[in-house]
Amino acid sequence: MTTEERLQDVLSRIEAAERQASRAAQSVSLVAVSKTFDTEAIRPAILAGQRIFGENRVQESQGKWPALKAEFSDIELHLIGPLQSNKAGDAVALFDVIETVDREKIARALAEEMGKQGRKPRLYVQVNTGLEPQKAGISPKDTKAFVDFCRVELGLGIEGLMCIPPADENPGPHFALLAKLAAQCGLEKLSMGMSNDFETAIHFGATSVRVGSAIFGNR
Ligand SMILES: *Cc1c(COP(=O)(O)O)cnc(C)c1O
Q1: What Pfam family does this protein match (any one) (predicted)?
Q2: Could you give the dihedral angle defined by the CA atoms of residues 16, 47, 122 and 171, in that order, rounded to the nearest 10 degrees?
Q3: Atom of ligand 1 nearest to the CA of 195
Q4: In contact, 174 and 165? CB cutoff 8 Å
Q5: Whose CA is nearest to atom 11 of ligand 1?
Q6: What are the Cα distances from residue 136, in Å, to 36, 118, 128, 152, 188?
Q7: What is the DSSP letter of 85?
Q8: pLDDT digit string (tens) for 148-157?
Q9: 51: three-class secondary structure by DSSP
């Protein structure tokens, strides 16, 4: 299958999952995860109409997205990988949405850069729902306090929550937990679900799914 065909297939599956979950059509947006793929591999997806893309490294993104963003002015680029505070400035300059805010230091660095640059990417807080030591994200019990801190202390608008469930577990309970935490924080956006589990995530209320290999092929 071509990239266009795989993209269409994923979009049809999203639509079917929305219907099955009795959710409104187009209530779920697709973030096409293009990490490791070069400009020429990404271009067919853009030409097929896809506009929202996700990357997990700042430096890799700087090598390919400025040119594509200049060519297609309505691209929306999401950072979905861990962010170091020394890269906060670069991230604020390039990304439209940063999904991996997960600690005070990075929140402070982002707030400072947003002030300096006058650019305000939309922000999500990443939650480590599986409490995995090697994984980024704030713990579920600290999520509400951290969201409040970002809002009250730093004046950051937090749009939603994001999670990556443990690879070897049933993702459903993790998605349910993220939805519950978002409700406690008064947040409506949930970034959850990848190639292997996006339909499950839609069932549990995902408002965006991050799909890479099902569109671009194996990395
Ligand atoms: C790579 C990645 C994805 C996409 O994974 P696939 O299994 O290729 O769909 C989604 N979210 C994050 C945070 C990722 O790093």
Answers
A1: Ala_racemase_N
A2: 40
A3: 9
A4: yes
A5: 210
A6: 20, 27, 6, 23, 22
A7: G
A8: 999 999 999 9
A9: coil
Q: What one-character-per-residue DSSP string does 193-211 give?
A: --TTTHHHHHHTT-SEEEE
Written as one string, the DSSP assignment of 141-176 is: GGHHHHHHHHHHTT-PPEEEEEE---TTS-SHHHHH
Is residue 217 a contact partner of residue 38, using CB atoms and an 8 Å limit? no
- Specify the residue with its C-alpha closest to ligand 1, atom 10: 210
In ligand 1, the atom with minimum distance to the C-alpha of 211 is 9
Distance CA 202, CA 209 (A): 8
Are the C-beta atoms of 189 and 182 separated by less than 8 Å? Answer: yes
**Amino acid (1-letter code) at residue 98:** I
